[in-house]
Amino acid sequence: MKSFKRIMVIVLDSVGAGAAPDAASFNDVGSDTIGHVAHVYHGRLHLPNLQAMGLANLHHGGLEGVSVESQPIGDFGTMQEVSAGKDSMDGHWEMMGLPVMQALATFPNGFPDELINKISEFANRKILLNRPYSGTEALKDYGEEQMVTGGLIVYTSGDSVLQIAAHENVVPVAELYRICEYVRTLVNQPPYQIGRVIARPFVGHDAGDFKRTANRRDFSLKPTGETVLTKLQKMSVPVVGIGKVQDIFSGEGIDTAYHNESNDNGMVHLQHVMDTTPNGFVFTNLVDFDAMYGHRRDPIGFGHALMAFDQELGDVLGKMNQDDLIMVTADHGNDPTFQGTDHTREVVPLLSYSPRLTQCGQTLGRRRTFADLGATVLENFGGQLDNGTSFLGELQ
């Protein structure tokens, strides 16, 4: 088939489509992010564009308020993950042909003294907290102490992450970044090999109004091998990263990057790129679903964000050229009705659409790895990925 000039992938960060086959290994049996959000809305979840693309067709019996589409405008399916973890880095790397097969370090009892002492000595600041914690609860419980002492709120989760929170008026953002850059150098090798070091600046006057800002930055482990992004770059295919894509891949394989302040801002960036970059690969991450609603276990807010995205998706679909292909997916689940506050091991949606497709509504089935998406992108531009199976030929 004739290749597409431009492929756009939108990752709805954490919008899973039901428990993965290996969910039991992650204590996530019964998780279903999109299904449970729809249930909380009791039929009032209005997602006409995602519905038209076949979102409800992924669930047996559909979703409450989102009907099974008899004639979807595109092809649809799901993808399951083979990576050892369920973090954003694992999911995005696997999509780009680099699954994380060896589990990265996690710290259910907090970080070891050796690591904490090095951070404290470098920053010349006291370390507060140091254990698994909800980010918003960490601000409520330790934010005022941080402002008084100038210390650093260090915490983790079930994922391979080390997060550092500090008030922007107490620890300037540039200083927090410098500290995180140093920590990144400490955790690139076992036994402390960590996927992401995350700077979490916040503002506010007291525990009642502390708020994390858009100055968050992820300092990720550098890709341990070649990705679809770097392969495309070598082939002189323009690669644009929107949102935290730049951070997740440590800038490798990205020609142009846009930082998002919100999901809405990310969709504005996407439309700008559509106006200015007529060919190539555009990789977008929308993190609000995860950061603002999934981890905070807020299904109502999650649903509102989905409906807002759906409206903006309609604008994007309306702007597409005949030789454009768009794919909407996710990197993991984060069921806001589930136990705890961590990501959930789920399959993810795979929704594809192009104005030029004539035989729409075909199922892409259950893809055995997220890497099938990367294989499809790479084949379109004339390359080949060994550890993924392209479905380009199924899009007709």
From TrEMBL:
Keyword hit for Iron-sulfur: no
Protein's UniProt keywords contain Isomerase: yes
Database matches in InterPro entries: Alkaline_phosphatase_core_sf, DeoB, Metalloenzyme, Phosphopentomutase_DeoB_cap_sf
Highest taxon above the source species: Bacteria
Needed cofactors: Mn(2+)
Pathway: Carbohydrate degradation; 2-deoxy-D-ribose 1-phosphate degradation; D-glyceraldehyde 3-phosphate and acetaldehyde from 2-deoxy-alpha-D-ribose 1-phosphate: step 1/2
Entry EC number(s): 5.4.2.7
Residues where Mn(2+) 1 binds: D13, D331, H332
Catalytic activity as recorded in UniProt: 2-deoxy-alpha-D-ribose 1-phosphate = 2-deoxy-D-ribose 5-phosphate; alpha-D-ribose 1-phosphate = D-ribose 5-phosphate
GO molecular function ontology, one term from the record: manganese ion binding
Keyword annotations of the record: Cytoplasm, Isomerase, Manganese, Metal-binding
Entry's localization field: Cytoplasm
Gene Ontology biological process: 2-deoxyribose 1-phosphate catabolic process; 5-phosphoribose 1-diphosphate biosynthetic process; metabolic compound salvage; nucleotide metabolic process
Domain Metalloenzyme: 5-382
Cofactor note: Binds 2 manganese ions.
Span of the signal peptide: none
Positions with a binding annotation for Mn(2+) 2: D290, H295, H343
NCBIfam families listed in its UniProt record: deoB, PRK05362.1
Biological role: Isomerase that catalyzes the conversion of deoxy-ribose 1-phosphate (dRib-1-P) and ribose 1-phosphate (Rib-1-P) to deoxy-ribose 5-phosphate (dRib-5-P) and ribose 5-phosphate (Rib-5-P), respectively.
PANTHER family: PHOSPHOPENTOMUTASE (PTHR21110)
Homology family: Belongs to the phosphopentomutase family.
Name of the protein this chain belongs to: Phosphopentomutase
Natural source organism: Leuconostoc pseudomesenteroides
Lineage: Bacteria, Bacillati, Bacillota, Bacilli, Lactobacillales
Gene: deoB
